[in-house]
Specification:
The structure is a single chain. By secondary structure, the protein is an alpha+beta fold. It folds into three domains: 2-63, Orthogonal Bundle (Arc Repressor Mutant, subunit A); 70-276, BirA Bifunctional Protein, domain 2 (2-Layer Sandwich), CATH 3.30.930; 283-324, SH3 type barrels, CATH 2.30.30.100. Helices cover 33% and strands 28% of the residues. The chain has nine helices and 14 strands. It has helices at residues 2-16, 23-30, 34-46, 70-76, 95-104, 154-171, 233-237, 243-264, 267-276; strands spanning 50-54, 58-63, 86-92, 112-118, 136-143, 176-178, 182-185, 188-200, 203-214, 283-287, 292-300, 306-309, 315-318, 322-324. Strand 1 and strand 2 (58-63) form a beta hairpin. The longest helix is centred in the last third of the chain and has 22 residues, at 243-264. The termini are far apart. Bound molecules: biotin (BTN). Biotin binds next to helix 5, strand 5, strand 8 and strand 9. Biotin binds at residues 118, 122-124, 189.
């Protein structure tokens, strides 16, 4: 409860902008004492927020730390379920195992594990995922859709659409989706999605959706081995992005589109995916665990499976692979 009141105070002061809000008004609206409000303000100051206190008028929020802590995300949040539980860390090896553990312990759908820095971030195919401190969004979201396990890969495509929408809203640019899990701007990688499953043969217990988004990196922040293939929203837009605001928007669309998937299936979302895709119609190189081949990506099925036409005219279905354009 105390966490919630702290977030509510922050939200109200954010909305008030340069207008002071009195401690009494906050106390009345949140049904707590003025002393309690004062204590929460002190807690927020200890978290790095600063306030101007105007005699007899109240508080004005002056500065917010550029963190993705629970208080800042919740102040921007507009969802019934996703993001209601947020586990925030300064540094973690990776958010994925923490989210797996929480899911096994019964954490609710929409629970978020998020951190400023990962020291052993992981991508698909056992690759490393570079996650510098304070630059990006490194988070895992627990989903509990009522679907059979074979539908789980479609959630990677659902998440891709959700993140594109959020970036459009917050940053004003529109990334392209490279099947199955990359978002690109100018052919450079901005986002990777890692969908992992906790399932019985016929039932999904949880999907652990790992999202890595390069947000406020400058070109020099990327190590040499990825600087020619990666970019950030700041490099692309020329502006510093409020990461907490972007997280809140991603959670909004993730909840919206995963609910839509469960209610209506993939077909309505597929149309949106196709609008953002940079894969369809392209000559591609496909690398699966078993083989490497070239062809033209002709489309995705109603289940999100990639269709690739080979040089001899045969069409192959690709369920899981790395592709190069
Ligand atoms: C990929 O493109 O290969 C997927 C990258 C996924 C990275 C995210 S960052 C948050 C979560 N924790 C991890 O260790 N990985 C995912």
């Amino acid at each position: 409860m105390s966490g919630t009141i702290k977030h509510e105070i922050l939200k109200k002061l954010q909305h008030a902008g340069t207008e002071p809000t009195s401690g009494q008004a906050l106390a009345d609206q949140l049904s707590v004492s003025r002393t309690a409000i004062w204590k929460y303000i002190k807690q927020l100051e200890a978290d790095g927020y600063s306030f101007e206190t105007i005699h007899k008028k109240g508080y004005i929020l002056k500065n917010e730390p550029n963190l993705i802590d629970a208080a800042r995300i919740k102040a921007a949040l507009d969802t019934p379920t996703f993001g209601q539980a947020i586990h925030y860390f300064d540094t973690l090896p990776s958010t994925q195992p923490v989210a797996h553990q929480l899911a096994q312990e019964g954490a609710a759908a929409g629970t978020v594990v998020i951190c400023e820095e990962q020291t052993a971030g992981r991508g698909r195919m056992q690759r490393q995922w570079v996650s510098q401190k304070g630059k990006g969004i490194w988070m895992s979201v627990i989903l509990r859709p009522d679907v059979p396990p074979y539908e789980a890969p479609q959630f990677t495509l659902v998440a891709a659409v959700a993140i594109v929408k959020a970036i459009e809203d917050v940053v004003g640019i529109s990334p392209k989706i490279k099947w199955p899990n990359d978002l690109l701007i100018d052919s450079l990688k901005i986002t990777g999605i890692l969908t992992e499953l906790q399932a019985d043969p016929d039932y999904v217990n949880a999907l652990i959706m790992g999202l890595g988004i390069n947000v406020n990196h400058m070109a020099d922040d990327f190590p040499d081995d990825i600087k020619d293939i990666a970019t950030s929203l700041k490099i692309q837009s020329g502006k510093e992005i409020d990461r907490a605001h972007l997280v809140a928007r991603i959670l909004y669309y993730l909840e919206f589109y995963s609910d839509k998937y469960v209610a209506e299936g993939f077909i309505p979302i597929k149309k949106e995916w196709e609008n953002y895709s940079c894969t369809i119609g392209q000559k591609i190189k496909v690398t699966t665990v078993k083989e490497v081949f070239h062809g033209v990506a002709v489309g995705i099925t109603n289940d999100g499976v990639l269709k690739v036409q080979l040089p001899d005219g045969e069409t192959k279905s690709v369920y899981s692979a790395d592709i190069e354009l």
